[in-house]
Write the structure tokens for this entry.
Amino acid sequence: MNRLSSTNAVVLDLGGPILPVEFLADMRRYTRARLEKFVLDHAEQPVVSAQIAAVAKTTGYAADDVLAAISTLEHWCDEERSAAPLMAIEEMIWKAGFEAGALRTPIYDDAFQQMRGWVGRRVPLYTFSTAPASIAPRRVVASTPASGRSRSTLPSHCGPSCHQCPSSSVS
């Protein structure tokens, strides 16, 4: 009997076993190159203006000082800081990049096939990390098409504060 045949769930670490560790760093560089333009182009959208306001609250800048917010976000990005407003904007930039086809998830072939097998046996797949900076990339990477393959969907994140994670699928 396959020892995974009675498994209730599989917890995955995306960076390393599933996709190259460098990919998360590449995504941070992708953000940095697009951060200013993205914020300027979307500053009036409530979801982005809320992040600008959060930066202002943290830094003491005026809430309508978009350029000061951008400067702070760029500084945080350069420092690889796990600031909530930066992570929220990163996630928006990455989502747009994946939807436009500019970003692709480089899932290793063997990992993809194994995940597909687990999902075929209805074994729920989860990602886990205690590092706040990895939550947004895991949520975006797990919910986007794999490079040249079918769409893979995993739960956004399971961490210490998670009480229940949704099931997942690879199709």
Summary: The radius of gyration is 18 Å.
